[in-house]
Design goal:
Layout: E1 12-14, H1 21-27, H2 29-40, E2 53-58, H3 65-78, E3 83-93, H4 98-101, E4 106-112, E5 124-127, H5 133-159, H6 163-184, E6 190-197, H7 199-206, E7 211-217, E8 226-229
Parallel strand pairs: 1-2, 2-8
Antiparallel strand pairs: 3-6, 3-7, 4-5, 4-6
Helix pairs in contact: 1-2, 2-3, 5-6
């Protein structure tokens, strides 16, 4: 969190309630243990009476992904009223796949990243009410920004006499350039969405091919005060911290395929970073050493808003 003003503490982080445990207990003891373990990991609130609370929805590093899915299923089974939900996909999708997958629900935003092999790439929230047009337009804006980012990194590389710093800037320019190319091609880069619907419609989405988990969040009232942390499609057991291997000699940054509009996801060891920022119409998605590209501008209207993974 940024530095606080005198007398004002950091924003509060609300722990989500122990949701769906009774239902899970009736169904299976194993599901209960997974759900309890997942919920117990949520951090305790930290006080800040001036801005309210921030709610986290999704997974944290070290969370069991099967446990997270079990908890989400248990809560969805007992849901009785309309709510926001975090939908995680089992693969990275092109924008054209979204209308059918998210039919009959209100879409607030999607979460995207370019799955470059061995690279930490930026996770971005894109406001998206009209599918797929808003997503492709958002990707085009991201491509323009990534081009500017790459040019800035190249200028920095040319201006420094430090070999280590120069290598860092050059790597940053390469990554940003590849991200720009992927977004301009409307890549298979969408891996989650924030939606709102009644319980029947949410259960219908949860049962569609390509949906990995649907995590209802009935406690969420303000999306701009909510951090959404969807699991990455390539991680199946535990959510892991970021691991950027591409800058090592064994994994040079220039190796590996660039995702194409119909291509498969890259192989990444990156943990899912948080993305948190306000967006138009109250849409929001919550949240290396050598120099890297700067984080995204908070103006989501010009290509999304994000935090780079820690």
């Amino acid at each position: 969190m940024p530095g606080s003003r005198p007398g004002v503490g950091p924003p509060a982080v609300a722990s989500r309630p122990r949701r769906g445990l009774v239902t899970a207990a009736v169904l299976a003891v194993g599901a209960v243990l997974l759900t309890v373990g997942w919920v117990a990991r949520r951090p305790a609130p930290v006080g800040d009476r001036t801005v309210g609370q921030v709610t986290r929805v999704g997974v944290l590093p070290g969370d069991s992904l099967p446990g997270y899915a079990a908890a989400a299923r248990a809560e969805l089974a007992g849901l009785t009223a309309g709510a926001y939900a975090l939908v995680s996909f089992d693969r990275y999708l092109v924008p054209d796949r979204l209308p059918a997958l998210l039919a009959d629900v209100e879409v607030a935003a999607v979460v995207v990243r370019v799955p470059l092999p061995g690279r930490q790439t930026e996770v971005v929230r894109l406001p998206a009410q009209l599918l797929p047009q808003d997503v492709t337009a958002g990707m085009a804006g991201l491509a323009d920004r990534k081009d500017r980012e790459a040019a800035d990194q190249r200028r920095r590389a040319a201006d420094t006499t430090d070999p280590t710093a120069r290598q860092g800037y050059e790597t940053g320019a390469q990554v940003a350039g590849r991200e720009a190319a992927c977004y301009r091609a409307a890549c298979a880069c969408v891996y989650a969405a924030v939606i709102r619907a009644d319980p029947t419609a949410l259960r219908a989405v949860a049962g569609r091919d390509g949906v990995r988990a649907l995590d209802p969040a009935p406690e969420v009232a303000r999306l701009d005060r909510t951090v959404f942390l969807p699991p990455l499609p390539e991680q199946r057991d535990v959510a892991r911290p970021p691991a950027d291997t591409a800058a090592t000699p064994a994994h040079p940054a220039s190796t590996g395929p660039v995702p194409t509009p119909g291509g498969a996801m890259g192989d990444s060891s990156e943990g899912a970073p948080a993305v948190i920022a306000p967006a138009p119409s109250s849409s929001g998605v919550g949240p290396g050493s050598a120099p890297t590209p700067a984080p995204t501008s908070p103006d989501s209207r010009s290509g999304g808003s994000s935090d780079r993974s820690p």
